[in-house]
Amino acid sequence: MYKSMKSQYFNAEHQLFRESLRQFFDKEVAPYANEWEEKRQIPKDIMLKMGKQGYLGLNFPEQYGGSNADLWYSVVFLEELARTGLAGFSTMVSVHQFMAINHIFKAGSAALKEKYLVPAIRGEKLAALGISEPAAGSDVSALLTKAERQGDSYLINGSKTFISNGTYGDFITLACKTSDTALSLIVVDLDAEGVSRTKLKKMGWHSSDTAEISFDNVKVPLTNLIGKEGMGFYYLMESLQLERLVAAIMAVIGATHTLDLTVKYLHERETFGKTLAKYQVIRHTLADLFTEVEMAKQMVYNTCWLFTQGETVVKECSMAKLYTSELANKVADKCLQYFGGYGYMEDFPICRIYRDVRVGTIAGGASEIMREIIAKIAIDGVSFGKVY
Ligand SMILES: Cc1cc2nc3c(=O)[nH]c(=O)nc-3n(C[C@H](O)[C@H](O)[C@H](O)COP(=O)(O)OP(=O)(O)OC[C@H]3O[C@@H](n4cnc5c(N)ncnc54)[C@H](O)[C@@H]3O)c2cc1C
After folding, report:
1. Rounded CA gap, 250 and 252, in Å?
2. Exposed (0-12), middle (13-18) or buried (19+): which is 110, by Cβ within 10 Å?
3. CATH architecture label of 12-125
4. 94 lines ligand 1 (CB under 6 A)
């Protein structure tokens, strides 16, 4: 395996944590990867097992069952998730832990935390995040799903699409219009009356479940509002930074994993009396890719460090997501080529990686949107403040 550059951010405890995590994933995930992909479903008991180990609470305080570990533990966790090579599984876990329940932790009431955050950290409840809709994805201000006050409840109508954990999830952090112009975040139980879910068929991420969800007069207590009414857009925009950083960490480590698999194969496969690892054209291509991946990793780590310093990192997170997701695609494409026909066969993990990696430049904000944000900051001088 390629040994990455040493990094100043990880100490001996982080390293021990990495080793125990790797053992856990080797035992609890790797043997089932193909089965989960084929069944297009991941049994929820893996979340319970991860909850028991304390993995799902790394980034949350002890009072909710978390361990309040520093960000580098979460980075190690995400890197090892990515190294499983099973993007469907990484998506299920990262959406739950770093995207959906994060809002409840940041702005939810004590009661919401008790009811949803605590069981989610234990792995007893699976969470989804509902932003995208059939008619609006990139343009969050164009969302149509409505939550109207009716006595002590909200009445929710509308639909969401492409929702990870939407089919098998227990609850969703839902972005809804609470007035013509303002969005709010509301927690909705996914087994509530009026909720219907349709599982979507996808090109990749087969083990991850992705759903279209419709809400037909779904009644939700007003107390399920996260934070302040009308602040949803701002909560989302701020949390998108962490989401994009999470995506970047997993994309860059995913690319490292792809390179590792490829190097192993290059040493095994022979053509014209020598292994593929001896052909200079291939060696140089891989050398370039290793260099780009290492550069990207340092950029991602620096952004993580800025994040720990409480800096506003909108530009850096957008750059990291843009660059790493495009790089992961390039790496998968170049590497698959060297597997020849085997690369096109389902029995070879590179085949799955190739189709899984494609969505990276779309989900969580398309590359074009990342470029728009970077351009606004770098060219127009726009700046972003903190919401929480
Ligand atoms: C597998 C998967 C899982 C997902 N999981 C979730 C989830 O859990 N929760 C959730 O809320 N969403 C989820 N999404 C949705 C994802 O975030 C959206 O697909 C993404 O934000 C893009 O929105 P859209 O698909 O509506 O594309 P559109 O907004 O219709 O854009 C289509 C394309 O047009 C281009 N484009 C759009 N606007 C611009 C512009 N201003 N300038 C230049 N080009 C532009 C981009 O290339 C973009 O890809 C998921 C998507 C997928 C595929």
Report:
1. 6
2. exposed
3. Orthogonal Bundle (1.10)
4. no
Separation of CA 251 and ligand 1 centre (Å)? 17
pLDDT given for residue 5 in this prediction: 63
pLDDT attached to residue 2: 61
- Which residues have a catalytic role annotated? 243
Find out whether the beta carbon of 210 lies less than 6 Å from any atom of ligand 1.
Answer: yes
Q: Whose CA is nearest to atom 42 of ligand 1?
A: 368
What is the pLDDT at residue 4?
Answer: 67
* Domain range 233-378, its CATH number among 3.90.320.10, 1.10.287.130, 1.20.120.450, 1.20.140.10: 1.20.140.10
371 lines ligand 1 (CB under 6 A): no
pLDDT given for residue 384 in this prediction: 84
Q: Could you say which residues of the chain have pLDDT below 50?
A: none
Decide: 169 in ligand 1 pocket, CB within 6 A.
no
Q: What is the pLDDT of residue 387?
A: 72
Supply the pLDDT for residue 1. 65
202 is written with which tokens?
């996808």
Topology classification of domain 128-230: Butyryl-CoA Dehydrogenase, subunit A; domain 2 (2.40.110)
Listed in sequence order, the residues at least 6 apart from 300 whose beta carbon sits closer than 8 Å to its beta carbon are 245, 248, 249, 252, 320, 324
